[in-house]
Amino acid sequence: MDRRTFLAGAASVTTVGLAGCSALGGGTSEVTDYDVGMGSAFFRPAEIEISVGETVVWANTGNRRHTVTAYEDQIPDDAEYFASGGFDSEAAAIDGWQDGFGGHIESGTTYEHTFEIPGDYHYYCVPHEPEGMVGTVVVTE
Ligand SMILES: [Cu+2]
């Protein structure tokens, strides 16, 4: 798998994609290898640009439980739905959260998704959307 990931306009973290795999097996509580951090009620950066075939790694860098949940009607038509927890629809992801915090990304852990279709992908954190916790992945050819 091509692990190269670059972040437009975020040079300080351009190397994180290279090491994203290691974050999955890491036993440390502090995740340092990721593309998008999740804080109290935000994704940082809120918008990330990648190329087709690249993987975005989200890390919960805060202390609250978060989700990465795509807006089903705000991703490209041909794109596969994605959500932490592996839900195959937005409704399932919401139900899952309400039924015992399904899909949550614990503090210090990561979630990743590979994007195969170009376009804009809007997503949010189920519990913190009311606080404005939304993000966008822009996938270019
Ligand atoms: Cu959240």
Helices and strands, with pairings:
Layout: H1 20-25, E1 36-38, E2 43-44, E3 47-51, E4 55-60, E5 69-70, H2 90-98, E6 110-114, E7 119-124, E8 134-140
Parallel strand pairs: 1-4, 3-8
Antiparallel strand pairs: 1-2, 4-6, 5-7, 7-8
The chain binds copper (II) ion (CU).
Copper (II) ion (CU) is lined by residues 64, 66, 125, 127-128, 133.
Architecture overview:
The protein is an alpha/beta fold and 141 residues long. It contains 2 helices and 8 strands; from the N terminus they run αβββββαβββ. Helices cover 11% and strands 26% of the residues. The longest helix is centred in the middle third of the chain and has 9 residues, at 90-98. A 4-stranded mixed beta sheet has the order 2-1-4-6. A 4-stranded mixed beta sheet has the order 3-8-7-5, with no helix packed on it. It is globular, with a radius of gyration of 14 Å. The site of copper (II) ion has 6 residues, from loops.
Would you summarize the structure shown here?
The chain is of the alpha/beta class.
**Structural classification:** alpha/beta
Question: Would you count the extended β strands for me?
Answer: 8
Uncertain stretches of 5 or more adjacent residues = 1-28
Spatial extent as radius of gyration:
14 Å
Tell me the major beta sheet. Answer: 4 strands, mixed
CA distance, first residue to last residue = 17 Å
Query: What is the strand content?
Result: 25-35%
Please bin the fraction of helical residues: 10-25%
Task: Give the number of helices.
Answer: 2
Bound molecules: copper (II) ion
Strand order of the largest sheet: 2-1-4-6
What is the N-to-C succession of helices and strands?
HEEEEEHEEE
What gross morphology would you assign?
A: globular
Q: What number is the mean pLDDT?
A: 86
